[in-house]
Amino acid sequence: MKADGLKIPRHVAVIMDGNGRWAKKRLLPRTAGHSRGMNVMIDMAKKARELGIKYLTVYALSTENLARPREELEGLYDLVRRYFAKNVKDLYAENAAVRVIGDITALPEDVQALIEDGVKNSPANPDFFVILALNYGARAEITRAVNQAISAGQPVKEGDVSSLLYTKDFPDPDLIIRTGGELRLSNFLLWQAAYAELYFTDVLFPDFGGRDFEKAIKSYSSRNRRFGKI
Ligand code: IPE
Ligand code: IPE
Ligand code: MG
Q1: Does the CB atom of residue 20 touch ligand 1 within 6 A?
Q2: Judging by DSSP bridges, how do beta strands 96-101 and 55-59 pair with one another?
Q3: Tens digits of per-residue pLDDT, 87-121?
Q4: What is the distance in A from the centroid of ligand 1 to the CA of 57?
Q5: Fewer CB within 10 A of the terminal residue: the chain, N end or C end?
Q6: Which domain holds residue 11?
Q7: Does the residue 230 lie in any domain?
Q8: What is d(CA 3, CA 13) in angstroms, rounded to the nearest whole number?
Q9: What is the CATH number for 29?
Q10: What is the reported pTM?
Q11: Ligand 1: does its nearest atom lie under 6 Å from the Cβ of 145?
Q12: Helix (H) / strand (E) containing 58
């Protein structure tokens, strides 16, 4: 799809990194960074929708993040408790749906319930999807798929693997953005990223504004995707 002559990716996935460092620089608790990050995430979703992106996946909590101190995790869960319902209603008003990838059964029950409601009450024919990666790890996802294939007792083809992943209903990401300066994927969408374009920026997620997002889209737009062909 094109907007202002730009080639717009259908699916953008974002590794929202740098909240803790943003807070530390300001002598604030890490949770303050997560709180600001949450607002930035909402603005980013609006921007993505405006640009005509159809799927936005946000890496909010990895399987490895669950080993962080309890205090930090509680801070994150409290953000969900306080702001999730309102933010989701705003998304519905724009005919956007919420989906989840990852194993949310490890989260506190009330938080699970909020998230499940957010998914369940989403519009039926959305034109934009916000996909929350929560307690998501690509290795856990692939291991789960392998076990499902084994219990089905059939050899699998590549497409069958894709259809056993959490992301079975979504196309592969065209563009993966990582904020916060690290040059790695940290267990995010390892299978689905096979032909994703990668974009890394030093901007910490709480500082990642609409202009920064547009810069990433422009970079994507200028690339030549060959998928192994000539
Ligand atoms: C990413 O920011 C958000 C989560 C992992 C929940 P970090 O919390 O990893 O922030 P840094 O990398 O420590 O700055
Ligand atoms: C990746 O960030 C996970 C999320 C953004 C949710 P991390 O901060 O956990 O990744 P590492 O530890 O730097 O690889
Ligand atoms: Mg980090």
Answers
A1: yes
A2: unpaired
A3: 999 999 999 999 999 999 999 999 999 999 999 99
A4: 16
A5: C
A6: 2-221
A7: no
A8: 19
A9: 3.40.1180.10
A10: 0.97
A11: no
A12: strand 55-59
